[in-house]
Amino acid sequence: MRTKEGNKDKDILEAAVKVFASNGYHKAKISKIAEVAGVATGSVYVYFDNKESILLKIFEQLWGKLFIELKIVAETQNLSPLERIDAMIDLVFDVFTENPSLAIVFVNEQNHLQQSNNSAFTNYYEKFLDLGEDVIKEGMKNGLFSPSIDLNVFRYYLLGGIRNLLQHWAQDPKEFPLNKIRQNVKLLTKHGIQK
Amino acid sequence: MRTKEGNKDKDILEAAVKVFASNGYHKAKISKIAEVAGVATGSVYVYFDNKESILLKIFEQLWGKLFIELKIVAETQNLSPLERIDAMIDLVFDVFTENPSLAIVFVNEQNHLQQSNNSAFTNYYEKFLDLGEDVIKEGMKNGLFSPSIDLNVFRYYLLGGIRNLLQHWAQDPKEFPLNKIRQNVKLLTKHGIQK
DNA sequence: TTTATTTTTGAATAGTGATTCATTAATAAT
DNA sequence: ATTATTAATGAATCACTATTCAAAAATAAA
Hints:
Two copies of one chain form a homodimer. Chain A is mainly alpha-helical. The first copy, chain A, has nine helices and no strands.
């Protein structure tokens, strides 16, 4: 018998995030991912079925991690709904601040997976969005939030806005600091543009 | 001598919008675009340098058209800044309502071009965004809009939100009607989620 | 008509890179 | 030690499709 050495699957995933981030998914070569991971090209196929499934795994882990963290915040009873929304926005920004390559992959390739209609991905993503929705619902019930807002619209609007901002930040982090973005997103979410 | 028959360039562009919309840019075959346009594969290369330049042309025309229309609204002096923002949002939604395939190409492939850093594209897009910015600036000067909003952040946020919503609309137009989206985007822009 | 010029064609080319698989290497069990 | 089993390798395969280009077709001019 022989046992697997090290964590090649983890190495490959981390390498893939880097390579996808710098070249985009379509231009990324499996041979390059293998090289960065320090394994042979063929080894990638020992751990993953194909190129697409590597991308899928990256997103699964991302949304999975976020979901767990957000769930805790969403259920913290001693915060008001507005404070919880704030904290949830913070969490999303924190994840991407920690790992800029992951941010780039997220903003550029999320479409790709949404189109492929992969259920594993969709489930995670929807569960993630539902958490935010629950908080908003509570805010409406308490009379804090405007009841004329459609929840489905709001959640996709917020996430789309954040995604686009992250994309511009990733292209030029100094010109476009993440903290300014974060503050403004919170303001816009709460008050819109009106005084 | 021989003169060109019909408007093959226009036919090819329209075919490309359809094919890009249904398969995505990367999976779209030139031979399929030619087939839909009713020309030979080789003819595509008589009118366009390569695949990428077809996509570029589509976006150039889209932003070019939008720019002209938005400029008129942005400079209409008898509308308040808020009314102008409203009208501008309407214009964007109108373009995509008229041509759903174009909406799909827009939401899925805009990233692609932004990354390629093509100046022809960037110029149009930035000019387009600047128009909205001018209106917001006026609103701030008049004391209508909150001065703590960063304009750069706001414009990317708004466009990103709209883009994401259009994407979901394009995937399921009945479940997610465009008019509801339009109304909610206006509300969220003005007031945020708070009452 | 005939010739010259330009358009159109689509089969052939050519580059690419994802994926496979026969082989080698390493470890566990006997 | 020896054998069995699984991991790891990377060169070769194979499919795919953007692009090219020599030939054919169409029209204008002579």
